């Protein structure tokens, strides 16, 4: 069972001008595709070849001998999740059940947004900022490189990719502008609420 590159859940120009089709050509069409191709090559001769992405991540996390498998499979998973976290005409204050949960956890959406963006800004180098559930509690966490909350028993609800290839073509080195735009214009709160259940 080979890992497939998922289609974007929207046209590649649907998030313009916030994320350009040029960025998607590279980020989805080249970076994400390379992780898929590498994962399939690395898995081909292993006992993990028929496992789900989540199962492979859990079975290879922390295993130095299988770090290549973990890095590529986790990046396939992280990117597939990230595309779902955005939508045209998205962003702004949370809606639905997640809005009340954010309010009870942080006191206001503005405080949540500040801390979420801060996690993205303070992730040194490449990585991700996440909104996750730990048991029934919302938390903001960050992971480096390919690491993912599912390797740590956390349930991801939302992520923003802060690898430079996620934003450099559109924002150059202005990570803060990218993060502000993600929160204000792109978050798919319907997806977050779906995961919240």
TrEMBL record:
Protein keywords: Iron, Metal-binding, Oxidoreductase
A molecular-function term among this protein's GO annotations: superoxide dismutase activity
Residues that hold Mn(2+) according to the record: 27, 79, 161, 165
Superkingdom field: Bacteria
Group of enzyme by EC: oxidoreductase
Function: Destroys radicals which are normally produced within the cells and which are toxic to biological systems.
UniProt family annotation: Belongs to the iron/manganese superoxide dismutase family.
Name of the protein this chain belongs to: Superoxide dismutase
Organism per entry: Syntrophus gentianae
Lineage, uppermost ranks: Bacteria, Pseudomonadati, Thermodesulfobacteriota, Syntrophia, Syntrophales
């Amino acid at each position: 069972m080979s890992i497939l590159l998922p289609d974007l859940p929207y046209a590649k120009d649907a998030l313009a001008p916030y994320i350009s089709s040029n960025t998607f050509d590279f980020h989805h069409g080249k970076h994400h595709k390379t992780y898929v191709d590498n994962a399939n090559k690395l898995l081909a001769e292993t006992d993990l070849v028929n496992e789900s992405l989540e199962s492979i991540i859990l079975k290879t996390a922390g295993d130095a001998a299988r770090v290549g498998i973990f890095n590529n499979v986790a990046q396939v998973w992280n990117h597939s999740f990230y595309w779902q976290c955005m939508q045209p005409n998205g962003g702004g204050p949370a809606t639905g059940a997640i809005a009340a949960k954010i309010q009870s956890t942080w006191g206001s959406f503005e405080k949540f947004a500040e801390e979420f963006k801060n996690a993205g800004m303070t992730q040194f180098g490449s990585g991700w900022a996440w909104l996750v559930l730990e048991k029934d509690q919302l938390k903001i966490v960050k992971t480096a490189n390919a690491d993912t909350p599912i390797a740590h028993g956390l349930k991801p609800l939302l992520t923003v990719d802060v690898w430079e290839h996620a934003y450099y073509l559109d924002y150059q080195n202005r990570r803060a502008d990218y993060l502000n735009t993600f929160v204000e214009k792109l978050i798919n709160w319907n997806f977050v609420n779906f995961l919240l259940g």
